[in-house]
Amino acid sequence: MVANSLEQNHENKTTKTKLMNSSSALRKRFLLAAYRIFSRFYVLFSRDPRYQQAVPLALYAPWKIDKEFRRTYKAIFANTLVDQYRCYELWSLVEQSQKLGHGSIIEVGVWQGGTGVLMAHRALQCGITDPVYLCDTFSGVVKASDKDSFYKGNEHADTSQVIVERLVEQFGLHQVKILKGIFPDETAHLIGDDKFRLCHVDVDVYQSAKDVVAWIWDRMVIGGIIVYDDYGFLGCDGITKLVEEQRSLPDRLVFHNLNGHAIVVKLA
Ligand SMILES: C[S@@+](CC[C@H](N)C(=O)[O-])C[C@H]1O[C@@H](n2cnc3c(N)ncnc32)[C@H](O)[C@@H]1O
């Protein structure tokens, strides 16, 4: 009797979660399509010479045939704002970071947990058992400033720590530590003397990203990778500015990727 009611309860919860997931997946598809249309019009009518629709001529698309990636992406799809091209890059970089031998992984800007869980899952698959820190205010974007043309603050507040915990649990990711609060100001002290192999910065605005990198740079191992999400996106010009400021620094390599990532590798 008790077992039956527990089972029923579990089924109800699963159905509810599925329904919620499919409605946020629909919302996400709609937003992506709207962004595509808007950006086409923007480049047609804007006189800003820094922007254009850039479509690579190369056709190689390994994200389409990587079965494990496809399975994982499908499972996190409703919990991420990040498209499959950038998700696949994170997936591949986690795998590559295995060569660095040691170091934790950190994501600042987790929202509903999609990319963070994707990276943590890939890490375990690759035999990387170091901690994966997932850091978010869970109350939206902070530190928007005059360097950011579109963000005002509090965007992406439609999440909670519980949503991320559920996804972490679903994947059985025992190495994940969720840090709630502004990073680094309120939560970095909770991290010991870890060194980092990979850092995903997905905070949308200039000052937040700058503070994250100022905190983590000396803690990155040589060869360690920082991935900036939203580089080149119309709405996130603060991130593009921050990355451009780093181009001439002698201790790092800066890569521009057309998918909306900038990748920085630590040299010294
Ligand atoms: C675009 S969302 C992250 C998207 C996520 N990576 C995904 O898979 O869709 C940006 C997130 O950054 C968080 N954020 C921005 N600045 C932050 C900071 N300094 N510390 C912690 N979280 C921050 C916001 O709360 C928001 O959830």
Net shape: globular
From the alpha carbons, calculate the radius of gyration and give it in angstroms: 19 Å
Summed up, the helix count is: 7
pLDDT average, as an integer?
92
In the sheet with the most strands, the strands line up as 3-2-1-4-5-7-6
**Helical amount:** 40-55%
Q: Give the strand content.
A: 15-25%
Largest sheet: 7 strands, mixed
**Structural class assignment:** alpha/beta
Annotated CATH homologous superfamily of the largest domain? Vaccinia Virus protein VP39
| CATH topology-level name of the largest domain | Rossmann fold
The domain count comes to 2
- Which small molecules are bound? S-adenosylmethionine
Q: Element order, helices and strands?
A: HHHEHEHEEHEHEE
Q: Which spans have pLDDT < 50 for at least 5 consecutive residues? A: 1-14
Measure the end-to-end span: 63 Å
Work out the number of β strands: 7
Second-tier CATH architecture of the largest domain = 3-Layer(aba) Sandwich
What is the CATH C level class of the largest domain, in words?
A: Alpha Beta
Keywords:
alpha/beta, Rossmann fold, globular, binds S-adenosylmethionine
Show the helix and strand layout.
Blueprint: H1 2-45, H2 67-76, H3 84-97, E1 104-108, H4 114-125, E2 132-136, H5 161-171, E3 176-180, E4 196-201, H6 206-216, E5 220-229, H7 237-246, E6 252-257, E7 261-266
Parallel strand pairs: 1-2, 1-4, 2-3, 4-5
Antiparallel strand pairs: 5-7, 6-7
The structure holds S-adenosylmethionine.
Residues 80-82, 108-111, 114-115, 135-137, 140-142, 156, 159, 182-183, 202-204, 208 line the site of S-adenosylmethionine.
